[in-house]
């Protein structure tokens, strides 16, 4: 008997994603953030306090880097392994995309070492300082909203050996000649959830990012150079016992004829040896959904699997384990 594989029909739905104004009253903001994290695992923040010139400076430096000829880029930063310059190959599992990128570690030694491509490494370190501070503020608001100790999540990002990363993604226009069949709907960066704790994404005015509502429904996120997009990562889903959802998202290839899309993505992560567990206050009568694991363990599991897999499922406690 031939069993047909169900074909998932995709639908694009225009939904107003939550936009949270950080200049409002803290207690109100904390509640709104928790709601957005439970409902979507995603929101935008405005009035976030990261100075515009720092974002603009990083954007200019990134464009300058991507504008260089390939041999020069390679000479400056080397081929992604996993840090450095990559093109079309995303991840170690053979995933491909319509972009080039630069992946950087964010601790100060690494910035000094790898930001040679910038005329001014100050651009990278001030951007990283700004987004790290914002990520910690958001994680503390989440902790407040959830009623757990304030630094439950943010302390990981403040560790000297936090494994946080900065990824600069450059999506050049995908021309009609390079993709003769259906030009619309080409994927630039395939569906996935971010493995870390929290992601802060800034982009220029070119659209591309979409978030998933499940069942093949995709929501385009309008680009807003004054806002940061905030994604819950897998580790925060685990640390909230599944209450927050790590949002599945993707970026469409850039179909504007002349403008490039740039996204600058900060991934706030724990140090490698950190153990990921849910604070007791969140368990109450609920059984833990995930077993404890270290960030190093989660990373090696992630790298061994394809981008599109639900990688956190591997750490779920099975029903048999729960009763024994
Ligand atoms: O460029 C984008 O909008 C998304 C990129 C992304 O999801 C990532 O780098 O993890
Ligand atoms: Fe992502």
TrEMBL record:
<keyword id="KW-0223">Dioxygenase</keyword>
<keyword id="KW-0479">Metal-binding</keyword>
<dbReference type="Pfam" id="PF03171">
    <property type="entry name" value="2OG-FeII_Oxy"/>
</dbReference>
<dbReference type="InterPro" id="IPR026992">
    <property type="entry name" value="DIOX_N"/>
</dbReference>
<dbReference type="GO" id="GO:0016705">
    <property type="term" value="F:oxidoreductase activity, acting on paired donors, with incorporation or reduction of molecular oxygen"/>
</dbReference>
<dbReference type="InterPro" id="IPR027443">
    <property type="entry name" value="IPNS-like_sf"/>
</dbReference>
<dbReference type="Pfam" id="PF14226">
    <property type="entry name" value="DIOX_N"/>
</dbReference>
<feature type="domain" description="Fe2OG dioxygenase">
    <location>
        <begin position="161"/>
        <end position="270"/>
    </location>
</feature>
<dbReference type="GO" id="GO:0046872">
    <property type="term" value="F:metal ion binding"/>
</dbReference>
<protein>
    <submittedName>
        <fullName>Non-heme dioxygenase N-terminal domain-containing protein</fullName>
    </submittedName>
</protein>
<comment type="similarity">
    <text>Belongs to the iron/ascorbate-dependent oxidoreductase family.</text>
</comment>
<keyword id="KW-0408">Iron</keyword>
<dbReference type="InterPro" id="IPR050231">
    <property type="entry name" value="Iron_ascorbate_oxido_reductase"/>
</dbReference>
<dbReference type="GO" id="GO:0051213">
    <property type="term" value="F:dioxygenase activity"/>
</dbReference>
<keyword id="KW-0560">Oxidoreductase</keyword>
<dbReference type="InterPro" id="IPR044861">
    <property type="entry name" value="IPNS-like_FE2OG_OXY"/>
</dbReference>
<dbReference type="InterPro" id="IPR005123">
    <property type="entry name" value="Oxoglu/Fe-dep_dioxygenase_dom"/>
</dbReference>
């Amino acid at each position: 008997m031939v069993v047909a594989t169900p074909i998932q029909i995709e639908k694009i739905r225009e939904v107003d994603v939550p936009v949270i104004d950080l200049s409002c009253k803290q207690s109100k903001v904390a509640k709104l953030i928790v709601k957005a994290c439970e409902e979507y695992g995603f929101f935008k923040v405005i009035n976030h306090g990261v100075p515009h010139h720092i974002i603009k400076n990083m954007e200019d430096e990134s464009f300058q880097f991507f504008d260089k000829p390939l041999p020069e880029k390679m000479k400056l930063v080397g081929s992604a392994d996993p840090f450095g310059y990559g093109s079309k190959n995303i991840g170690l599992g053979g995933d491909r995309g319509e972009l080039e990128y630069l992946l950087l570690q964010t601790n100060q030694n690494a910035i000094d070492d790898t930001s040679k491509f910038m005329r001014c490494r100050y651009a990278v370190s001030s951007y990283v300082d700004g987004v790290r501070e914002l990520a910690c503020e958001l994680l503390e608001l989440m902790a407040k909203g959830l009623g757990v100790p304030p630094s439950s999540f943010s302390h990981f990002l403040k560790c000297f050996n936090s494994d946080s990363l900065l990824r600069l993604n450059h999506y050049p226009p995908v021309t009609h000649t390079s993709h003769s069949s259906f030009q619309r709907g080409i994927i630039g960066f395939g569906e996935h959830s971010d493995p870390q704790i929290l992601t802060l994404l800034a982009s220029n005015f070119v659209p591309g990012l979409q978030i998933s509502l499940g069942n093949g429904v995709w929501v385009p996120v309008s680009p807003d150079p004054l806002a940061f997009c905030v994604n819950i990562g897998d580790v925060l889903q685990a640390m909230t016992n599944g209450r927050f959802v790590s949002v599945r998202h993707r970026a469409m290839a850039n179909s504007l004829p002349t403008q490039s899309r740039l996204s600058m993505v900060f991934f706030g992560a724990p140090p490698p040896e950190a153990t990921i567990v849910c604070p007791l206050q969140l368990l109450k009568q609920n059984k833990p959904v995930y077993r404890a694991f270290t960030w190093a363990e989660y990373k090696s599991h992630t790298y061994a699997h394809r981008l599109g897999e639900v990688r956190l499922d591997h750490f779920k406690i099975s029903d048999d384990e729960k009763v024994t």
